[in-house]
Write a structure and sequence with these properties.
3 domains; Rossmann fold; alpha/beta; 28% helix; seven-stranded mixed beta sheet; single chain; elongated; binds S-adenosylmethionine
Length: 328
Amino acid sequence: MRPAASIKMGFYPTPSTVVNKIKTFLQFPQGKVSFFDPCCGEGIAVKELAEGKNAVTYGIELDQARAEAAKQNLDFVISGDFFQTKISNNAFSLMLNNPPYFSDGIERQELAFLRNTIRYLQPQGILIFIISQHRLDEKIAKVLSLHFENIQVFAFPQDEYEAFKQIVILGSKKQSSEPDLPKLQELLRIPDSMVAEIPETPLLSYPVPETQLITIFKSSVVDVLELQKFLAKSTLWNRLENSHRKLYGSNRPPLPLRTGHLALVLASGYLDGEVGEGGNLHIVKGRVFKETKENTEVLDKELIHRETDVIRISIKILKADGSIQVLV
Ligand SMILES: C[S@@+](CC[C@H](N)C(=O)[O-])C[C@H]1O[C@@H](n2cnc3c(N)ncnc32)[C@H](O)[C@@H]1O
């Protein structure tokens, strides 16, 4: 049973008893494998799966404290939102996906985490998907039967099952997605069925494929904590900061800003807020945004669709009389 304090912000770590049973379903190759958890909590489940094996482990966690703990347990951890990351496709040997059990107001996170992680698993890569039994709805069943084969579904052991009625869905990713109607119908019956517990000895086990090259595994936003840690270790930054403080006693730049510098600082939003006095009082708001231009052309018999991102800046002023002036 889990301590009540750990059931926080969708944090329901996979119990060790379940991890150890799942591990008996895996046949490890000679070479290196890679394990990925897109919402890894403290990373303990993947650490346990990988223990004693030639495995490199990757995790992403939104909660900062849990992400810091995960950094002690996994080889590579992104502290941040899974939905704001860049990761190599078709790369990982195995994925443990025990997503948060809630809706973000648009869709259930179980479906979002399943649908958006499949591309990172290599063909024949192993999926371990953990959800509450009643959440296996038509959308999830369709995704599973379309993209995975050798699917097996088991219930958590009795003691662990009581809390959230969780099931473990195991499968290997198909070489290419293909509908499987009988499997879909079988999965649709699961919420109303008695599901067998994970057996001690598996009847069908899964060969884990060796890892593919993982060249990209990063957040698409800046991790402020990591940046602070990095800067604290940088001798250049420390020298710059110290000499600057000694000379100027503040963060004022040594020379006045040129017009171009000022425009950049304004646009990035650093000078947002009230400016001027009396009749000249106004509010400045700068912003940098991305504009996507689309263009479609027919080349021989192929339709080519291009999207080009252009970074634009905008600076607006709200005057005391209520009028808005657009500078850029
Ligand atoms: C059910 S727990 C699973 C933890 C771990 N995977 C395990 O099996 O033990 C779900 C975790 O997802 C994290 N989480 C929620 N939304 C997330 C997001 N958008 N990106 C990354 N992690 C997220 C929560 O903070 C929580 O730790």
